[in-house]
Hints:
Number of strands of chain B: 13
Oligomer: heterodimer
Strand content of chain A: over 45%
Distance between the termini of chain B: 37 Å
Order of helices and strands of chain A: EEEEEEEEEEE
Order of helices and strands of chain B: EEEEEEEEEEEEE
Amino acid sequence: xxxxxxxxxxxxxxxxxxxxxxxxxxxxxxxxxxxxxxxxxxxxxxxxxxxxxxxxxxxxxxxxxxxxxxxxxxxxxxxxxxxxxxxxxxxxxxxxxxxxxxxxxxxxxxxxxxx
Amino acid sequence: xxxxxxxxxxxxxxxxxxxxxxxxxxxxxxxxxxxxxxxxxxxxxxxxxxxxxxxxxxxxxxxxxxxxxxxxxxxxxxxxxxxxxxxxxxxxxxxxxxxxxxxxxxxxxxxxxxxx
Lengths: 115, 116
């Protein structure tokens, strides 16, 4: 059974700091991994999707890496801003037709960036 | 491009009452998902549709939850009767799946259900 764990559960940093969020999964046979952002009371916004054949994806100040063999992914946020404050969720997708394509989520890391 | 639409955004009901949620996916997305997110946890899949058909409903409490997707577009999720532990955010997502390629799942704003 696939389990996804995110560490830390909460993180508070001063503005401008670079930071890393961690995600680990128990079954390395994944199809892809997605990082999402969730603002209070809102839905999920997809930040980055990494296919299993890729090692990293970048978008602006965000960089996500994937190491399937060790069951780990990291989300790197450069020069953090107060607007980055949100909960960050990682999710793995095991497959499409054999597993239905569902996403299995971690519990999230709640990030607070102080001005 | 319009996103995934959900209604209502908030709902408060008493236990043992019934409630229904509605979702309209992104146009052209054949796959539709309903997730339940309990406070402080990540979302958990309840049911997945591919066009009209159910692909995965293994975690749907079928004694009280039901869902349908008529004509392969809109979907409704119903709870009858509701329990206190059903208090959660119900998220609808859709994705474009073509052959063996999976695309990103796009999420709606969710419906926050409070059962008192």
